[in-house]
Amino acid sequence: MDTELDVERLRHDFPALSLKRKGQPIVYLDNAATSHKPLCVIEAENRFYRTQNANVHRGIHYLSEVATEAYEEARKRIQRFLGIPLSCETIFTRGTTEGINLVANSYGRKFVNEGDEIVISAMEHHSNIVPWQMVRDERKAKLRVIPMNDQGELLIDEYEKMLNDRTKIVAVTYVSNALGTINPIRMMADMAHKRGIPILVDGAQAVPHLPINVAELGCDFFVCSGHKMFGPTGIGVMYGKAEWLNKLPPYQGGGDMILNVTFDKTAFASLPYKFEAGTPNIAGVVALGTAVDYLQSIGMDKIAAYEHELTEYGTKLLEPIEGLKLIGTAKAKAGVLAFVLENAHPHDIGQILDDCGVAIRAGHHCAQPVMQRFGVPATARASLAFYNTKQELDALAEAVMKVKKVFD
């Protein structure tokens, strides 16, 4: 089997990779924030508006039927890509944040009561902290946090000890956006399930980098965002086991999520429509379907292997730089190189790197508790995608050396 990526050929699929700043190609290493889009995705969204545009599910005219078919066909393709057992378990959202809020709101209202416990981890994005804090406060529950070690790995023994009869749900990230750590989700799901506890997995930073099969992961809920997986912004996916989704109340009310409405009561639609109130992001769904086709045509195994090689290469480049400290050195890690540099604030690093044509993210990465855990106000973060190259990482390292010359 051919295991190598033809990266140079693939780069031609992305118009944004040819953009320049000050006459130099932009080295884009901010993929954890959002990824660039291949031309096929851009054209799919454009084509929808030019040739298929109509609302879905409600019209009996030709264009509505065409739009509905494209929308539902995309649902099936995304279902297969994520290994979701049933099409009706594939719910479209605006993104990961809305998916987590959906579960927190619907599950929390139904199953979390005073004195119950919700387990999250120390490396969560704010989007997997704040919604659960809101549930905690409303339901008078308790939020428990799985600690991590200095490498940025969760302490699984401590996690197992946290699970008890009061635990109502576990919500944990698959890949940390701030550290790159890949968590052992299957093991964590098995531990939770031994006590009958469901687990939600934030897959936003995993889907673009790893083969995903939610059934094999054993999760009960899984959420991700289209724009981080080379699809459009404003569209995401929430998987939930039908046995759970059928027990949960709707997250939002409105059109398309009802079976029948009177002033006395409303009967809700069946899955997945019960959780898709209002007109959805139809063009976004169609284009996301194209994005997953594109990823499958490359092969997620190949992408994971290549990005692992890139991450190791970048680590070897940055580690020897005097005064530089990598934040997040887990053994199992996806393409994140987060670091601090003596005498230089991460924002200054980001600014100077930008002047060198290297685009990274500087800040707390919506993970302030992670910064607190490592005793830093912020980090500079280079985050990789399969279209990045070793030459771009060379450019990153050269730019970091320029930062050192300014501040040393």
What can you see in these coordinates?
It is a single chain. With 408 residues, this protein is an alpha/beta fold. 39% of the residues lie in helices and 16% in strands. The chain contains 14 helices and 17 strands. The strands form five sheets. The protein has a seven-stranded mixed beta sheet with strand order 4-10-9-8-7-5-6, with helices on both faces. The chain has a four-stranded antiparallel beta sheet with strand order 13-14-17-16, with helices on one face. Helix 7 links the parallel strand 7 (167-173) and strand 8. The N and C termini lie far apart (49 Å).
Largest sheet, strands/sense/barrel: 7 strands, mixed
Mean pLDDT: 97
Determine the number of helices (DSSP H or I, runs of at least 4 residues).
14
The low-confidence parts are none
Number of strands: 17
Q: How many angstroms separate the termini?
A: 49 Å
Estimate the strand proportion. Answer: 15-25%
Structural class of the secondary elements? Answer: alpha/beta
Strand sequence of the main sheet, in spatial order?
Answer: 4-10-9-8-7-5-6
What is the radius of gyration?
A: 22 Å
Shape: globular
Q: Helix fraction? A: 25-40%
What keywords describe this structure?
408 residues, alpha/beta, 7-stranded mixed beta sheet, 4-stranded antiparallel beta sheet, 14 helices, 17 strands, 39% helix, globular
